[in-house]
């Protein structure tokens, strides 16, 4: 996956959360999300952080964080595994 592929995937999730009016919110330390919406808000916040990792050339960390976001989206039933794998497929 290239940087551009990663940005395309991030834009899919940004559009979904923006369309559902999910704000960006950073959870810290021992906080537990009180609802799925708070999980999504933290995931939405993570997208900008991932962009920063891409800009800094920190691809390994960007991939880990993307995996976390995608795991959350799958565990909450937002996307199927097939849909997530399709998101990650390089475009020609």
Average pLDDT confidence is 92
Number of helices: 4
Q: Structural class given helices, strands, pairing?
A: mainly alpha
What is the helix fraction of residues, given as a range?
A: 55-70%
Characterize the overall form: globular
Total count of strands:
0
What's the number of domains?
1
Largest sheet: none
Indicate the low-confidence ranges by residue numbers: none
Gap from first CA to last CA: 12 Å
Rounded to an integer, what's the Rg over CA atoms?
Answer: 13 Å
Residue fraction in strands: under 5%
Order of helices and strands: HHHH
In terms of topology, how is this protein built?
Blueprint: H1 3-19, H2 36-55, H3 59-75, H4 81-88
Helix pairs in contact: 1-2, 2-3
Explained architecture:
The protein is mainly alpha-helical. The protein has one domain (3-20, 34-88). It is built from 4 helices and no strands. The chain has helices at 3-19, 36-55, 59-75, 81-88. Helix 1 (3-19) runs antiparallel to helix 2 and helix 2 runs antiparallel to helix 3 (59-75). The model has no long low-confidence stretch (mean pLDDT 92).
């Amino acid at each position: 996956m290239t940087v551009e592929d990663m940005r395309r995937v991030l834009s899919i999730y940004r559009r979904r959360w923006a369309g559902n009016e999910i704000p960006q919110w950073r959870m810290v330390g021992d906080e537990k999300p009180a609802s799925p919406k708070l999980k999504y808000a933290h995931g939405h916040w993570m997208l900008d952080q991932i962009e920063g990792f891409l800009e800094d050339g920190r691809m390994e960390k960007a991939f880990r964080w993307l995996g976390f976001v995608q795991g959350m989206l799958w565990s909450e039933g937002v996307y199927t595994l097939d849909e997530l794998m399709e998101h990650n497929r390089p475009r020609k």
